[in-house]
Amino acid sequence: MKIQHYFDTINETFSVNNRTNLAVSLLIVLWNAPVVALIVTLKTLVMWQRRVHMRAELAAREHRYLIDMNISSEAAQAEVSKPFWRR
Questions:
Q1: How far, in Å, CA of 25 to CA of 67, rounded?
Q2: What is the pLDDT of residues 29-60, one digit of tens each?
Q3: CA distances (Å), origin 30, targets 3, 10, 11, 39, 43
Q4: Rounded to whole angstroms, how far apart are CA atoms 62 and 60?
Q5: Angle, to 10 degrees, between the axis of helix 73-80 and the axis of helix 19-60?
Q6: What is the pTM assigned to this prediction?
Q7: How far is CA 60 from CA 18, 31, 54, 69, 75, in A?
Q8: How crowded is residue 84: how many other Cβ atoms within 10 Å of its Cβ?
C-alpha cells in the first residue's frame, strides 16, 4: 500500500470528524510504517547493488567496447569512480 493512501484516509477522517475512525486510521498508519520503511530500504539496497554491478562491468570493458558504446575513457572513469550511493 502506498503512503498517500494512508494520508488520504486520515484526511477523510478529519473531514468526517469521527474520533473512532481517526484512531483506526492512525493505527493503520503506525502498523504499516515499518513495512513501508522495509520496502523502501530493500529497493534502495537493490538499486545500490545494480550500480555496483554496472560500474564494475564498465570498469572491465576494453577501450574498443567503450568506443562502440560511444563512451569516452574519461566519462567511463568518472562513472566508475563514483561511490555506489551517487547517481
A1: 56
A2: 777 778 878 888 999 999 999 999 999 999 99
A3: 11, 12, 16, 15, 21
A4: 7
A5: 130
A6: 0.62
A7: 62, 46, 10, 14, 14
A8: 13
